[in-house]
Amino acid sequence: MKKALLIVFSILLVLFIGVAIYISPLMPIITGYAAKAMTSSVFLSGRAQEDVEAVDLNFSFIKYNKNIVDMEKKTVKSRFLWYTSKAVFDEQYGATLVKKYDEAEILARPIIDYESTTELDYSKLWPEGDQVITRIHRNVDYAALSQAYENAFSNEIPYYGTRALLVVHEGELIAEDYAEGFDSQTRLLSWSIAKSVTNAMVGILVKEGKVDIYDPILMTAWENTEKAKITWNDLMHMCSGLEWEENYGNESDVNVMLHKTGDFGIYTANKKVESAPNEVWEYSSGSTNIISYKIRELFENDLDYYNFPYDELFSKINIKSAVFETDPSGTFVGSSYLYATARDYARFGLLYLNDGVWQNERILPEGWVDYTRTPVEASDGKYGAFFWTNNSKQMPDAPADTYFCQGYDGQWIMIVPSKELVVVRLGDSTKQEYDRNIMMKEIMLAFPG
Fold first, then answer.
1. SS3 324
2. Which of 141, 330, 378, 385 lies 20 to 30 Å from 156, alpha-carbon distance?
3. Which residues have CB under 8 Å from 186's CB, separation 6+?
4. Is 238 left (phi over 0), alpha (psi -120 to 50) or beta?
5. Which homologous superfamily is 188-444 in?
6. CA end-to-end span of the chain, whole Å?
7. Which pLDDT tens digits describe the chain residue by residue (449 residues)?
8. Where would I find the H helices in 180-240?
9. Backbone torsions φ then ψ of 268, nearest 5 degrees
């Protein structure tokens, strides 16, 4: 009997040790994801902790976190088993995980000129303001559009998880709806739509003569190495040749970067070379954060850097709700962490539909939008420069000239020049739960002309 108990105990001990060895490297990711998401959702989006836990964090090991939200100090601690992560909130810079930098350093960012607000301005017509005119657009099948909206918010597969859906036609907002608990004043996470915003930041620097995208990006750590020939263009095309794993389900490069490091750009810059630049396409959030890191280096001081996207992009195109979150080192997370309202994401899409011009002012340099949407050969026609393209008919039922911003869990800004159309869809859906091609197919039925 004692021998049998000893065997059982030994087996259980081995299993426990095996599980501990497997899960220990994942603990900062499990807890870090929960702490960061909860902090942004509560303090930026104004959502209840219970709602975030029931929907956004209700998966895998993430759902087993114990989340402690301090409404007064504006912090969140998330604990799973023996590990705890903490995120802190700043009104201008949003949520940041406390990793490698202490809380005081993270909260010591300078005060910028831009005051983010979700208040609506009804004194001007959209897109300059928020007053929406109600006129009938020719060649629009409103019955088909209404049906597309009804489907999109049915919350059934393949329509699950829609939080916002907006359609802009000929420069006017003609359709808009939100799921319960969300509205036109709710800031929503962009995930990789932020990459496309980083594209715009680079474009503005090109227009100002501060960047040539075909020059090497000249990271200090790359001097006299084979990485020294990597250009801005290589990184924007996701063809840097640096090793990378973009998988959110394990201890991948993207998860380590977002949840276990303090400086996202430096982490990526230290990755090994797998191929020569401009030869192999490999989607990499790290590539965007190298660019974000380098943009910061172009400014004489951090205050100018932090003001830059707000002064030269957001304010110029009437985006008032944006909060661009930083990594612990203070660099904008150009790959992932921008929050704004759905209307403001639509304004961003409209800027590109109008070839980088806003109210007769050129924001992006001439030719930049064409550069952005020109597919990279190595991507098999599906990717441009921090934008996706439909040249390879990823969405067979959307026009071939469609190009788009795409973020994790179903965030999209679709731009269709041939139809003078911008479609914004934001939500919380896995690939299996929501089908972007079906969304576009049904919306396109409303624009037969």
1. strand
2. 141
3. 45, 46, 118, 163, 164, 178, 341, 342
4. left
5. DD-peptidase/beta-lactamase superfamily (3.40.710.10)
6. 82
7. 666 666 656 565 555 555 555 678 999 999 999 999 999 999 999 999 999 999 999 999 999 999 999 999 999 999 999 999 999 999 999 999 999 999 999 999 999 999 999 999 999 999 999 999 878 888 899 999 999 999 999 999 999 999 999 999 999 999 999 999 999 999 999 999 999 999 999 999 999 999 999 999 999 989 999 999 999 999 999 999 999 999 988 899 999 999 999 999 999 999 999 999 999 999 999 999 999 999 999 999 999 999 999 999 999 999 999 999 999 999 999 999 999 999 999 999 999 999 999 999 999 999 999 999 999 999 999 999 999 999 989 999 999 999 999 999 999 999 999 999 999 999 999 878 999 999 999 999 999 97
8. 193-207, 232-236
9. -70, -40
Collapsing DSSP states into helix, strand and coil, what is residue 404? strand
Instruction: Tell me the one-letter amino acid at 121.
Output: D
- Domain assignments of the chain as residue spans, ordered by start: 2-90, 188-444
pTM comes to 0.95
Alpha-carbon gap, residue 403 to 401, rounded angstroms? 6
Q: Which two tokens stand for residue 11?
A: 């087996």
Give the number of other CB atoms < 10 A from CB of residue 374.
15
Given a contact cutoff of 8 angstroms between Cβ atoms, the answer to whether 185 and 341 are in contact is: yes
- Which residue is associated with the tokens 């000249």? 218
3-state secondary structure of 53: helix
Beta pairing class for 172-178 and 188-189: unpaired
Task: Tokens for 400, please give them.
Answer: 């071939």
- Contacts by 10-16 with C-beta closer than 8 Å and gap 24+? none
